[in-house]
Write a structure and sequence with these properties.
This protein is an all-beta fold. Helices cover 0% and strands 53% of the residues. It is built from no helices and 5 strands. It has a 3-stranded antiparallel sheet, with no helix packed on it. A two-stranded antiparallel ribbon has the order 1-2. A hairpin with a 2-residue loop joins strand 3 and strand 4. The chain starts with a strand and ends in an 11-residue tail after the last strand.
C-alpha cells in the first residue's frame, strides 16, 4: 500500500500496488509512478543509492 498527497482530492489517498504505473531502478534510486483513482499521477523517488563502483587502478 502507498499513501500519496493528491492535489485533486486535496487530501491523502491510500493506493494499492495495482495503481503502480511504472517502476524503474536507476543509479540514483527507485523511480515510482502511482496513479490515483482520479487520474493524477504522483512520481516518487525512493530507495538507496546504488553503491559506488570500484574502478581497478
Amino acid at each position: 500500500m502507498f499513501v500519496i498527497d493528491c492535489p485533486t482530492h486535496g487530501s491523502r489517498v491510500l493506493l494499492s500496488e495495482r495503481r503502480i504505473r511504472s517502476l524503474r531502478n536507476t543509479d540514483t534510486g527507485v523511480l515510482l509512478a502511482l496513479e490515483c483513482y482520479c487520474g493524477h499521477v504522483e512520481k516518487i523517488s525512493t530507495g538507496r543509492r546504488a553503491p559506488a563502483r570500484h574502478v581497478p587502478e
